[in-house]
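Worked Example 4.2. Consider the chain below.
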Amino acid sequence: MQTQVYVGTSARTGGSISGVFRRSAHGGAWTHAIAGFADDTHVHAIAVHPDDPATVFAATSTGLYRSRDRGDRWTRLVAPEGEEQMWSVLVHPDDHRVILTGCAPLAVYRSDDAGEAFRKMPRPAIGERMVDCFASRIMRMSVDGGSIFAGLEVNGAMRSDDGGESWIDCSDPLVALSKQPFYESAILSKDKAEGMLDVHAVCSAQGATFLALRMGLFRSVDRGASWQDLGIGQHAAHLRYGRDIVVSPWDSSDMFAAVADSSRGVAGRLYRSRDAGASWKQIDHSVTVASTMMAVGLTAADRKQAHGVTRRGQTFSTLDDGASWLEVGLPDGAGSAVAIACG
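Applying the procedure from the previous section yields the following structure tokens:
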């Protein structure tokens, strides 16, 4: 069966239609695949199961959902408590029975039986650094050896060495960097450390952990004790807003990143590194990006494929390792696109 591309949308900040949109990687019409979702569900993250492309997970404003038929029908696995919303979902790369979903306000749910049952883990003992902003949310999780890393919007990063039972704050080095004028940014609050704590994505590879955050792309080689700027802004000074960073499932030195001019900007790019983040090159040649580049989707089934999505609903797909690109816009009325996955 052909690879399917899934895009998650939210009508909170534009458009009128939330949910999951699905199409073939080769193009064609979009299907609004929301059967089984609660009403007014905003989709924040999507993950395709690495062993079974028919199984798809969606982290949403009304809980964590799973589809076993490529999105035709969804079943809620975790109902949120109170005002909780799910913002991320991770299938553990070393044990696919373990599934984690991250929330706002700050919380983690874990399943050890492939999603049949979940338990809420103890609340991470991490303070809310940006008290004037919204409650911190876990935007992405990744695994490095025996540790789980989480990127928080707007609250930095944290690490668990015991499967999510407890967490260690990895944000002090980010705050320290924010003392330099180049890294100062305050939009939602009066705290100029805000930009360095505005983390959107995290991934791990080759003993290093990477963050995509408002002020760029950063790497740690000491488990979050320090962070180094990867200098993505050197390619285009106005395009260093880091929105996504992922490691390819076929080669841990092959990485992709989505950067833009701002959260609700008018420009963005897809970059690729073939040396574990040491150097980056633009790969989305011949496309015109009209808003923030939000996310990158890859599939282990075909290393020549890569897919990107912008906030205003442009999707870009290459099926030939970046030699050419196909643009397929989401249907009129689709909400802001915030996530993309494929499989």
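Helices lie at 172-177, 194-197. The chain has a mean pLDDT of 96. Compare this with Example 4.1 before moving on.
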